[in-house]
Amino acid sequence: MQVKEWHISQVDSHIVQRLVKDLNISDDIAKLLVKRGIYDFDSAKDFFRPNLSKIYDPFLMKDMGIAVDRINQAKKNNEILLVYGDYDVDGTTSVAMISLFLTSLDVEHKFYCPDRYNEGYGISKNGIDFAINENISLIIALDCGIRDIESISYARSKGIDVIVCDHHKTGDKLPNANAILNPKQKNCNYPFKELCGCGVGFKLISAFHIKNKISVDNTLKYLDFVAVATLADIVPVVDENRIFAFHGILKLNTNPNPGFTALIKKLSSRQKISSSEILFGLAPMINSAGRIEHANLAVKLLISNNSEELNRYSENLFSLNLKRKKIESEIFNDALNNIDYDLSATVLCSNDWHKGVIGIVASKLIEKHYRPTIVFSEKDGLLTGSARSVKGFNIYDAIENCKDLCERFGGHKYAAGLTVKKENYESFKSRFLSIVSKQITEDQMIQKIDIDLQLDLNKLDNKFYRILKQFSPFGPGNPKPVFKTHNLNLKSPPVLIGADKKHIKFLLDLKNTNIQAVGFNLAQLVGKLKSNKINLCYTIEENIWNSKKTLQLLVKDFF
Length: 559
Known about the structure:
- By secondary structure, the chain is of the alpha/beta class.
- It folds into three domains: 54-320, inorganic pyrophosphatase (n-terminal core); 338-445, Diaminopimelate Epimerase, Chain A, domain 1, CATH 3.10.310; 448-558, CATH 2.40.50.460.
- Helix content is 40%, strand content 20%.
- It has 19 helices and 19 strands.
- The strands form four sheets. Strands 3-2-4-5-6 form a five-stranded parallel beta sheet, sandwiched between helices. It has a five-stranded mixed beta sheet with strand order 7-8-9-11-10. It has a five-stranded mixed β-barrel with strand order 14-16-17-19-18.
- It starts with a strand and ends with a strand.
C-alpha cells in the first residue's frame, strides 16, 4: 500500500463568512462550497438547484447546423443510417440514445459497435464494410471518429457521409467528415468543452428538435442516458455536465429508460440511485458487455421495450460483470508480482491477460505503486494497451512522444489507449520509461489525499448530512467531500470483513454516541489500529440495513 500524504488547502475566510451570512449555513458547509468555486448566492443557487434553462444553445457548436440539415435530408430521402459508437459506457449509451431518437423519427437505421478484440477502438474498416453491405448512406459516429482519418476517407470514397460526435482531443489533422461535432476542436465557440460523447450526441438531438420545432420534452427524455455516460466517463461534473447529471439522476429515480430499470433491479441494495450507484453499479454492468463479449448486448438492452428481452439481457450483463470481476482479480494479482518498484513508471505485458479489463487493472496498480502505468495485452503480434496516470502527469503527451512506435493512440491527460506492434514493444517501453523519468517530479509520485476540512465528529448529525447529500452528483470537479479528524477513540478492536477478509470495520467512541467506520481493501493496515487514539481520513456515507438508515465513515486512510 502506497504511503499517502494528506493535504488540506485553506480558503478565504472573508468569502466563507459572506456565504455563512447570505445562505444561513454553517462555517463547515461554507468552506466546502468555497473549495468548489462557489463564492456567492447566485453560484450557490446554480450549484444546489441545477436549472435546465442554463444549458447552452446547441447551435453554438461548430458544424451543428450542417449535421442537423444532413439528418433532415436523410429523413426526407428515406435513407438508411448507421449509428456507430465505442464499446464502453459512453459509446453504448450514445448508440442506444441516437437509435431511439431515429426510431422516434421513423428513420430506418442500423447500429454498430466495434469488437474490442478484433477491431479495437474507433471507426474500423469492418464497420465501413458493414455500412456498404447494408446500403448505408450516412454514419453518425459517437464517442469516436476524431482521429479516424483513414476510415472516414474510406467511407467517403464509397459515397457514405459521416457525422462525427466526439469529445476526445483532436490531432493536427481532422477527418474529412461532413460535420464534426466536438467542442474541443479549433474554432468551436461552444462555451463548455468537457462534454462526454453522449453529451455531444444529446446536443445533436436537441438541435434537431429545435430546428424542426419539436417539443423540448422529446429531448429531455434522454437525460438518463447522458447522466450515466457523464459519470461513467469521468468527465468533470461541473457546468453543463452537472445539470445533465443532476436531472438525469432524477429521471433514473422517477421514469428511467426500461433498460436502465432492468439493471437497477439488479442493484437491490439501494432504494435510490445516486452518482455512486451509477459509477459502481450500473456502469460496470453496461461496460461488461464490451469488456467480456460484445458491446451490442448493452445496446440491445437499452433500446428494448420487451419485458422478456429486458430480463434476459440484464441477467446476461449481471453474469458478465461477475465474470469480469473474477478475471480482473486474477490479472491484477499476476501483474502485481511483476511491478518493478524502482522505476518511475510501470509498463507490463502478457498474452494471457484479457484485453477487456487491462484498464481497470492499470488503475488498481496505481493504488499499489503510484506511478504512470500502461498495461498491455498481446494477441496475434499486436499489443493493445491501457494507460492510466497520476495527478499532475500528462500520460497522453508522453505517449504522443512515442507515436512513431504506435499503430494508433488516443485519450486524455490521465487515461489513454494505444496499440503497438510486438516488435516495437521493447523500444516503446524503453522510450516511454525514459520520458517519464525525465519529466515526472518527486511530488507527482506521492499520492495525495485532498482533504476538504477538519471535522469535529461530535457535530455530525442528520441535518449536516442532508446538506452534504445536496452536493451530489459527485465526480471530477466536484469530488465527494473528504474530512479528517484527529485523536479519535476506538470503541472496540477492529474486525476483518468480506469473503476474502480484505476489508476492515471498527467502532469509534464519540462523546454522545458511537459511529461505525469501514475501510475497503485496508486490511493490511490493521496493525495501525492497535492504539486507542487514531487520526482518520474519510467520507461520510449513509448505511441502509434492514430498512434502517445510519451514518457511517468510509475510511480512506488512517494513522
